[in-house]
Amino acid sequence: MSKTRMYPIYGRNPSCSVSSRLEERKNKAKATRMEHSRRTDKPEDFITYEDSDSDEETPAMQKEILNTSYNFVDYIKSREMFSKNPSSVVSDYGSRHILTHEMFRETPITLGNMNKVFCSQWLSDRQVVFGTKCNKLMVYNVVTHKLDQIPSLMSRKDNLMAEQAHCGIHSVQINPSRTLLATGARNTCDIAVYRLPTLDPVCVGENAHKDWVFDMCWLDDEFLVSGSRDTKMALWRITPDMFEHKTEVPMYHHISAISVKDCRNSQRVRALTFNKAYEEIAALSLNGYIHIWNAETFKQKLSRKLPSSQENVCLAVQESGLYAIGCRSYTLLLDCRTLQAVKKVSSRYSGCGIRSASFQGDILTVGTGLGMLMFYDLKAGKYLDSSINSSRTVVLKASKGYVFPDDEFVDNIQNVKYVPAIYTHCYDTSGTRLFTAGGPLPATLTGNYAGLWQ
């Protein structure tokens, strides 16, 4: 759960330096190897090996182990005392424990007459921001349960507004220092940037795209990349002088992109992500290709055809650089160095479709078109098992949400059990709360769903 390097205040060794720990570590590694050797029925496609599996550890390594405390109390004390001792905590420990012990409980959120939530982010431990298909940018307070609408920003050229009014806000992204929020503008071919935490308008980025902006990603605190249905990618720069000077009446700038380039061999750029470990931008297009761009030069390096070209709609990257791509019937894991498929993670439910994906440490969370969230343990190479009942995996089933009746829905409601598609989900910073949202999967249906799991 945690690691804290301990230094003795008095004596030669800290209190955690007990030689029996080395023997326990060796026995545990031996038991793990024996467990792996028994699994011969079906060979695994991808196997990881822990450092602790090594038979021989040097004296320096043993000393390092003995002087490291894995006690969470020592971690908390070290943090309270502002100690400079090297320490770390496993980011997904809280969420993993809550999931395996089936402690998450859903609180449905009433959204009124809004239509389909496409994207979301936690602003703080109290607020979640999300964008809808009806082009509303909303902030939900998880404590007071209050909903506030943030006014959309208008570009100078808004003659396409009547045509683009109902495609919605598909992306909400916060920069690394959490000072700026980027999302869609009133005209959905443009982008809008707000200042955090006040959500004052900063600027509108215009004239780069001729079709809907599907996704965005921050490269750092100033540079932003957007991808559109017109197969183009645009690079924007938001400088500090745009938002450092406050005025009595909120004003915002109109900016143009630094660079606009075609994403070659693509049809509609559907999803973007920035791979910080390798300084590259990954773009997913609806014709079944993944495209890699150099983040420093903003030049396309390569494109690769994916095994599945059906419904590739979501893309996520782990801190180590592993890509996850949501497809129609499985989640594809790609090695970022070679773009070779590491594993195809079956969705376990036929025809559900993967609609959202994210990494929380070594746990891959996927939202499906059948109103379920599933959790894949990358280290174990399987879906997360329940500690309450070892014969089943952990699955969170969303409530129904709301669908506005129409003729098609009324005709089919008796024959098909309605469940919402989970188009977006996000963990808070502690990993102990999860916001999920979406709506009906058919494009012709109007409705919404949102829930808070805690």
What does this structure look like?
12% of the residues lie in helices and 37% in strands. It has 454 residues and is mostly beta strands. Strands 4, 31, 32, 33 and 34 form a 5-stranded antiparallel sheet that branches. A 5-stranded mixed sheet has the order 9-10-11-12-16, with no helix packed on it. The radius of gyration is 24 Å and the shape is globular. Mean pLDDT is 85; it is low at 160-165.
Percent range of helical residues: 10-25%
Structural class: mainly beta
Amount of beta strand: 35-45%
C-alpha Rg (nearest Å): 24 Å
Q: What is the molecular shape? A: globular
The CA-CA distance between the termini, in Å, is 20 Å
List segments where confidence is low: pLDDT < 50 over at least 5 consecutive residues: 160-165
Number of distinct beta strands:
34
Question: How would a textbook summarize the main sheet?
Answer: 5 strands, antiparallel
- Overall pLDDT score: 85
Helical segment tally?
Answer: 6
Oligomer: single chain
List key phrases describing it.
454 residues, mainly beta, five-stranded antiparallel sheet, five-stranded mixed sheet, 6 helices, 34 strands, globular
